[in-house]
């Protein structure tokens, strides 16, 4: 029992602490995560390497499993940890790595790891702590959502249509189709066949345009800080707000620049 408590305290210090050693540890984890995400993006081009690819696959699975177990131990309450949807995404990514023979068709969803990383407090407390709860955070989150959408759709198109349709001969063709559909350029030189192809094209246009507009809005709209109103609970306010615009409650928003 005492050893379990010491392990939990040690992991909590590493994952949530502010010491130089903890910060270096989190930087190393994030760097490895980015390398893994790059591997996920390149995986469709590497699958034909056979044994080497599967060795890398299980190596990545080992790291992700160890990381998730360590996070659960550091968090302390597994039931509460499992209530967070972002953690279920990471668990699904791990499942696609542990059971590639059964979940290979869902391998394109591994890129969601980029979304979970950039949307995690773990990332913002470490790499971007000076930009936490700023316009930079809003823009970065919106950009990561758009980029994740592009690569998830590209992976789906590649795994579903490459080799089965003349228009999609390789990964670059799938990426080209995704970008031209997302931007509604629609050159027409690469299209998907049948009713399902048309439905997918429309979904890419609607989803991509929505995310792109969200990115533009995060760049152009006035920034609001997160400061829950003690009376009505409104979370977002102007940085210089004195009263809550919903209920009129007097606010005292910390000014880090003062």
Automatic annotation (TrEMBL):
Residues 147-219 form the Potassium channel domain. The keyword Transmembrane applies. Keywords: Membrane, Transmembrane, Transmembrane helix. The chain crosses the membrane at residues 21-45, 51-74, 86-104, 142-161, 168-187, 199-220. SUPFAM superfamilies: Voltage-gated potassium channels. Its main location: membrane. This is Ion transporter. It comes from Caulobacter flavus. The lineage of its organism: Bacteria, Pseudomonadati, Pseudomonadota, Alphaproteobacteria, Caulobacterales.
């Amino acid at each position: 029992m005492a050893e379990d408590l010491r392990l939990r305290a040690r992991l909590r210090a590493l994952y949530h602490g502010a010491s130089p050693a903890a910060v270096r540890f989190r930087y190393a984890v994030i760097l490895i995560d980015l390398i893994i995400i790059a591997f996920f993006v390149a995986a469709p081009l590497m699958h034909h390497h056979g044994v080497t690819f599967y060795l890398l696959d299980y190596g990545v699975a080992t790291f992700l499993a160890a990381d998730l177990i360590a996070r659960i131990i550091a968090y302390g309450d597994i039931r509460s940890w499992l209530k967070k949807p972002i953690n279920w995404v990471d668990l699904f990514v791990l499942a696609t790595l542990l059971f590639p023979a059964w979940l290979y068709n869902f391998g394109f969803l591994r890129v969601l790891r980029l979304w979970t990383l950039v949307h995690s407090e773990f990332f913002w407390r470490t790499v971007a702590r000076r930009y936490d709860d700023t316009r930079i955070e809003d823009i970065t989150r919106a950009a990561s959502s758009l980029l994740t959408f592009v690569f998830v759709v590209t992976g789906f198109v590649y795994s579903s249509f490459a080799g089965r349709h003349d228009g999609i001969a390789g990964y670059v063709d799938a990426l080209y189709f995704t970008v031209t559909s997302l931007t509604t350029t629609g050159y027409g030189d690469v299209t998907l066949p049948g009713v399902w192809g048309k439905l997918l094209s429309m979904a890419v246009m609607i989803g991509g345009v929505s995310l792109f507009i969200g990115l533009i809005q995060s760049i152009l709209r006035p920034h609001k800080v997160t400061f829950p109103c003690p009376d009505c609970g409104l979370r977002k306010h102007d940085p210089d707000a004195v009263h809550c615009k919903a209920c009129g409650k007097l606010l005292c928003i910390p000014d880090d620049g003062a």
